[in-house]
Design goal:
alpha/beta, D-Maltodextrin-Binding Protein, domain 2, 11 helices, 46% helix
């Protein structure tokens, strides 16, 4: 009798201890939101919607994409950092919010390492130097000459002050020894609208956001900013090929949860999203947009964020880029 009581008690204790682990591996019962820190139509938004659609099927629940644009992605990051760590809210983290902002913003309202749990790297893309149909300068060499002949008059749009597009422009200005106007927007979507409409001249926009407009002929691709040409744009030369060796300014995307997201739940989500990234139709679409090298473990993504943060902190310091106070 005593032995049976002991066994029953032990079993109950084990079940109690195991409950949090089992709960952590289970998905939330309701809808899951992926927060995007930019306006609809931008690269972050496009990739988030591709993944959300597939996860809705795999998880058998509604996966929504919600846009909270502004401050180069920091508004969305701050919002997600304050949400419950139950997996119901994820952030499509971005180079801006998680690698550049810490070096540019002295009074950040969140801590990248403490307030977020990395889930998976979604992809790395080049930026595309693009222009509208009205521009006559359509090579890197001609753009440099145009800027030199019109110092401080040629405009370059970006997804926000301190964004990856902004820093790509600053790198270009330093390397080419030119002066140009930076015009920040609340995401690539509205910026591309103005670029196509002729309100601004050029942009180092994400390949993901720019690709549909380049394919349609509304935007002209001049150069791309990784050391290798992206598979989706084999005929667009790199900046290195265009007279700027070593020039590399990428944009990357990854999913993170709030801090203290249970590790088993993060791993469960990681495994499922890796499956999505390996789906042929998803891989084909990502390749078209220039998003490559995604996937891997949660630990790999955490290490990647740390390396990127160090890299861009160095660039910000050397280029003397100033962010919002």
């Amino acid at each position: 009798m005593h032995r049976r009581t002991f066994i029953n008690a032990t079993t109950a204790t084990v079940a109690t201890l195991a409950a949090p682990m089992l709960w952590a591996q289970n998905l939330p019962s309701g809808a899951i939101r992926i927060i995007v820190g930019f306006a609809p139509g931008g690269g972050t938004d496009i990739l988030a919607r591709v993944i959300a659609q597939k996860l809705s099927v795999i998880w058998n629940t509604t996966v929504l994409v919600e846009n909270k644009a502004g401050a180069a992605g920091m508004i969305a990051a701050d919002y997600v950092a304050k949400q419950p760590s139950d997996g119901s809210t994820l952030l499509m983290a971005h180079i801006n919010s998680h690698a550049i902002a810490p070096a540019l913003t002295p009074k950040m309202t969140y801590n990248v390492e403490n307030d977020f749990t990395p889930v998976v790297l979604v992809g790395v893309t080049p930026n595309l130097l693009i222009c509208n149909e009205q521009q006559q300068a359509r090579t890197v060499k001609d753009v440099v000459e145009l800027c030199r002949k019109n110092p401080g008059k040629i405009s370059f749009g970006s997804a926000g002050n301190g964004s990856a597009q902004h820093l790509a422009l600053e790198m270009f200005k330093l390397a080419a020894k030119i002066d140009a106007i930076h015009v920040p927007y609340k995401g690539s979507g509205p910026m591309l609208t103005d670029l196509i409409g002729g309100q601004i001249n050029y942009s180092f926009d994400t390949m993901t956001a720019a690709t549909p407009h380049v394919k349609s002929g509304k935007a002209i691709a001049i150069a791309q900013t990784r050391q290798k040409r992206a598979t989706g744009h084999p005929n667009v030369p790199t900046m290195a090929e265009s007279g700027f060796p070593g020039f590399e300014a990428t944009t990357w995307y990854g999913l993170v949860g709030p801090g203290k997201l249970p590790a088993p739940l993060a791993r469960r989500m990681n495994e499922d999203i890796n499956k999505v990234l390996q789906m042929p139709d998803v891989a084909e679409k990502f390749e078209q947009y220039g998003a490559e090298d995604g996937g891997g473990s949660t630990e790999k993504f955490a290490d990647f964020i740390k390396l990127e943060s160090k890299k861009w902190a160095k660039v910000v310091k050397e280029a003397n880029v100033k962010g919002d106070a």
